[in-house]
Amino acid sequence: MASIFKRCPEPLVLLFLVTLAIQLSCSVATATYSNHSSVGGMLPVHCLPDQTSALLHLKRSFTVTNESACTLDSWRAGTDCCHWEGVQCRDANGRVTSLDLGDYGLQSPALDHAVFWLTSLRHLNLAWNDFNHSQLPASGFERLAELRHLNLSTSSFDGQIPDGIRSLTNLVSLDLSSTFNVEDDHPDSSTGYGYAGYGIWVDHPASFLVEPNIASLVANLTNLRELNLDSANLSGNGVEWCTAFANSTTPQLKVLSLRYCNLYGPVCGSLSSIPSL
Ligand SMILES: *[C@@H]1O[C@H](CO)[C@@H](O)[C@H](O)[C@H]1NC(C)=O
Ligand SMILES: *[C@@H]1O[C@H](CO)[C@@H](O)[C@H](O)[C@H]1NC(C)=O
Ligand SMILES: *[C@@H]1O[C@H](CO)[C@@H](O)[C@H](O)[C@H]1NC(C)=O
Ligand SMILES: *[C@@H]1O[C@H](CO)[C@@H](O)[C@H](O)[C@H]1NC(C)=O
Ligand SMILES: *[C@@H]1O[C@H](CO)[C@@H](O)[C@H](O)[C@H]1NC(C)=O
Ligand SMILES: *[C@@H]1O[C@H](CO)[C@@H](O)[C@H](O)[C@H]1NC(C)=O
Ligand SMILES: *[C@@H]1O[C@H](CO)[C@@H](O)[C@H](O)[C@H]1NC(C)=O
To answer: Which range marks the domain in which residue 268 is found?
Structure first.
């Protein structure tokens, strides 16, 4: 897996970006010196202590190995977390609005609850990290009520999709898929799980994410435009899976991906009642 991880920003590029950011923010600050409160998001944002603390907790939950693509070196106490790699604070009050650790190749025994202290998050991407087949925390996601984009793709989470995700009514995209190299005839023999291709399960003890009630997952996600559940086990839905979508109030759904989901039964005509699909 390591070879497909994206490269981390080079220190030189970072230095350049930081320098640029400092120059930009200095000129903005000078120009608007006379009235700080009027410039809103333009002023340099300083991370609030609770946000810094949440991120440092999170960092400690990752086991950085020499195979990690990125080691979160910029995440250091005493520095402004709004400038850390993968972190953005898009509003003026120093709260983290985006955490993008997609493709970082980090390892962790489980998702740390500290992520739920980042209650202003609009964008959370933990895709392509390794959470060691742990369960997603049963509670906590409901606190991330501002979330627009949640991406937990191919992060080795197993078990039930937590109820909290059902309440994230602002979600525009939800990616809980897992990707495997289905052309590989020999799925990861060290863990003994994976697809041998063509939807055939290879024996594995803990399975992947399981969602036996699609109807309740999407019931309140009225803003959803993209839903990817590839490789989640949806077999518990029976032939009802299709009407569950058709009945749901996801009128803006444009992209629906359900590969290798253990679904059976016909594709119902009423799917076409979702006009944007
Ligand atoms: C700063 O701007 C705000 C909003 O535009 C305004 O209400 C306030 O009176 C201004 N303060 C000063 C000191 O000019
Ligand atoms: C990572 O460390 C292990 C042992 O510490 C070593 O055998 C391996 O070659 C290292 N891998 C890389 C990519 O440096
Ligand atoms: C989730 O992240 C992965 C890896 O970065 C990316 O390939 C995928 O497109 C993302 N999903 C969405 C819905 O943006
Ligand atoms: C991953 O989980 C297994 C089984 O629960 C455990 O034995 C192992 O120590 C965990 N590995 C890490 C890196 O947390
Ligand atoms: C959807 O929202 C309604 C109203 O807030 C609530 O009563 C219901 O339990 C929610 N449904 C699910 C599946 O979470
Ligand atoms: C998929 O989920 C169903 C329950 O919803 C369970 O009975 C079945 O064993 C699961 N399949 C796999 C391969 O884990
Ligand atoms: C979809 O709606 C129809 C008509 O209201 C109902 O009969 C059916 O049980 C619903 N299906 C699901 C899966 O909720």
So the answer is: 46-273
